[in-house]
Design brief:
There is one protein chain. By secondary structure, the protein is α+β, with helices and mostly antiparallel strands. Among the domains are: 1-30; 39-85. The chain is 49% helix and 19% strand. A hairpin with a 2-residue loop joins strand 1 (90-95) and strand 2 (98-100). It comes from Opuntia streptacantha. InterPro entries: TF_Kbox (IPR002487).
């Protein structure tokens, strides 16, 4: 039993010496070959740590990509469930308040670009005061130079 305890103490002292050497202490007693082995051990440890770090990062990236893909599927499903159109902007041209389909309309100086956005309509006051709301579109205009 005394021998086992002595072996454990020797192993403990050896490990503590190795730790001190890796921290840069107690290097005076080492010859060139021992220093070279210590350098190789430290390079191998750095390489192992770097590989492990890259694996953790790659796993995190894959997890985030899966979450984003899942959220997009949920969003697409909700759009279909509520019969909402895909969010594609609608554009047109206006010349003094009149809509035109052709981009090359005559060289008028008052040509404006439009973007139609869905928005609720105000209550229809002309239909007997009924307070019904419907979906229409709000118009944003941009002057073309």
């Amino acid at each position: 039993m005394q021998e086992d305890l002595q072996k454990l103490n020797e192993i403990n002292e050896d490990l503590q010496r190795q730790i001190r050497q890796r921290m840069g202490d107690c290097l005076e007693d080492l010859n060139f070959d021992q220093l070279h082995c210590l350098e190789q051990d430290m390079e191998n440890a750095v390489q192992f740590i770097r590989q492990r770090k890259y694996k953790v990062i790659a796993t995190q990236i894959d997890t985030k990509k899966k979450k984003v893909r899942n959220e997009r599927e949920i969003h697409r499903g909700l759009l279909q469930e509520f019969d909402l159109p895909k969010e594609e902007p609608q554009y047109g041209l206006v010349d003094d308040g009149e809509y035109h389909h052709v981009l090359g309309y005559d060289n008028s100086s008052h040509v404006l670009a439009l973007r139609l956005q869905p928005c609720p309509l105000p209550p229809n006051l002309h239909a007997g005061g009924a307070a019904g709301t419907g979906s229409g579109s709000c118009v944003t205009t941009y002057t073309l130079l």
